[in-house]
Each structure stands twice: as C-alpha cells, then as structure tokens.
Amino acid sequence: MKVIVVNSYEPWSAARAAEIIAAHTGGEGPALPILHAIQAAFGYVPEAVEPMIAEALNLSRAEVHGVVTFYHDFRRKPAGRHVLKLCRAEACQSMGANTLVARAEAALGIALGGTTADGLVTLEPTYCLGLCATAPSAMLDGRVVGRLNESRLDRLVAEAQR
C-alpha cells in the first residue's frame, strides 16, 4: 500500500504561533526547531512570527530574519498541497538535473519557487538530498526519489497534480 502525504496547513494564527514557540523555547538551540515547527503548522514562515521568536529567544528581529532567509528550506509564502523539490546540487546537475528542472517547470507552468494557480503543487529547489550516488534526485512531500529520469519525473508531477 502506497501512502501519499497531503500537506494540510493551519491558517496563520498569532496565538497558535505563540504556542509553538513556547513549546520549543526550553530546548538547546531552539531557533531552528521553532522555525521548522512554524513552517510545518502554517506551510511557511510568516514575517509576523519573526518578532515573536526574537522576543522569546532574546534575539534581534534581524537575527531571526537572517536565519529564515539563510536556509533554503524555509519558505516565505504558503506552499501548495504538494511540495516537489528538485535537487540542484553539483552531483545532480552533472547527471542531468537542469533538463529535469526545465521539464518540471514546463509541465507545471511555473518556475522553481512557484506554486501552481490551483494551489496543488509548489516546485522548490533543494541543495542535496544525500542521494548523490543515485543522482539526480527529488523529494515529493517528504518522500525521496533517486535515479530520476524523464519518465520518473513525469510520474512524480502527475502524482503531485492529483
């Protein structure tokens, strides 16, 4: 049986964000776990949460903003129902990833970083999924796929569009 994860995000709520922040402030190095939890809940890291995190962790807003914008995995606007990430690291590029990126962009009608108009698919770049030996690789809703070729990519895109 194949399990397909469908992203289901909560609408933005400052109260819910405060709960998430409070749940993670006691840990060591809490900034990244808080940001990941925020994104898991809302599908992105809203700008409005940055001062909340800064205050809770005794950091400046600039420091929190710097963390959010430094890491490619954090998105600034809501994701689609499915997130398809295509690896852009050197190993994948050397094995034809650029052609596959262009194919996915054409099939979905969006560029990397975009979300389809129907909100079904967000296409994102990622920088190494740890599958260099089976490059090129992708990730659909947290499931990694190696040895990507045109037909496997087409199947991923079709799956994401359901």
UniProtKB/TrEMBL annotation:
InterPro entries listed in its UniProt record: NADP_DH_HndA-like, NuoE-like, NuoE_N, Thioredoxin-like_sf
In the UniProt record, does the keyword Iron-sulfur occur? yes
List, separated by semicolons, the cofactors it needs: [2Fe-2S] cluster
Q: Which UniProt keywords apply?
A: 2Fe-2S, Iron, Iron-sulfur, Metal-binding
**CDD domains per record:** TRX_Fd_NuoE_FDH_gamma
**Coiled coil located at which positions?**
none
| Keyword Iron attached | yes
User: Of which family is this protein a member?
Assistant: Belongs to the complex I 24 kDa subunit family.
Q: What is this protein called?
A: Formate dehydrogenase subunit gamma
Q: Which organism is it from?
A: Kaistia terrae
